[in-house]
Amino acid sequence: MHLFVIPTWVDLAYFYVIAALVVWKGDWPQRTSMLAFMLTSWFENFVCFYRCPVWHAHAAPYDAQAWQELYFWRPFIFDGAQLTICVVFALRGVGYWAVWGSSILLLDFANDVVWASSKGFSLWTYLSADLIFSYAFTAVMLWGVWGRLRDNASAKPGRVTA
User: Fold this and answer.
1) Average pLDDT for consecutive 10-residue bins of the chain (162 residues)?
2) What per-residue confidence (pLDDT) applies to 58?
């Protein structure tokens, strides 16, 4: 069976290009949210998952139960920090992007909690959902930056906006 795996360079290129756009054109809440997302994702990918068995499917068989118990603490620290930052910005009312971002990060956190507490939840399912939520969050961040730029462009001097 051949599993479809997105090459790592595609993921990294996508995430770093979006992060650069958000840091370059976003306001400080968007920059803070994206930098927190990228820092925790970097730490998670390069420190915690550098020996991820799904990425190394050609290697020797692995013990999924031992791997799950080893990284049980990860979702509560990394995704909890991302979720907390985005919820704070949503409560401050900085924009709809924060509400949508918080919703996506809450789904990601729920995915992590279910994976950590369930013995029957496959690693492939967990990582696939985590990747989808990561793409969705970065798309929301890009949408927030685009909306901010659009609002700034429409607010020309002498023009009354509602």
Assistant:
1) 67 85 89 87 66 47 57 75 92 90 93 81 81 90 87 68 50
2) 43
For residue 54, what are the domain limits?
A: 8-146
Spatial contact of 83 and 111, defined as CB atoms under 8 Å apart: no
Q: Contact 75/98 with Cβ under 8 angstroms? A: no
Query: How high is the pLDDT of residue 158?
Result: 61
The answer as to whether 130 is a domain residue is yes
Establish how many alpha carbons lie within 13 A of residue 54's alpha carbon, considering only the half-sphere containing its beta carbon. Answer: 18
User: Does residue 138 fall inside a structural domain?
Assistant: yes
In sequence order, what are the residues at sequence separation of 6 or more whose Cβ sits closer than 8 angstroms to the Cβ of residue 57? 3, 5
Torsion sign (Cα): 112, 116, 121, 126? positive
Q: State the number of CA atoms in the 13 A half-sphere of 24 facing the CB.
A: 8
Per-residue model confidence (pLDDT) at position 104:
95
Query: Could you give the number of structural domains in the chain?
Result: 1
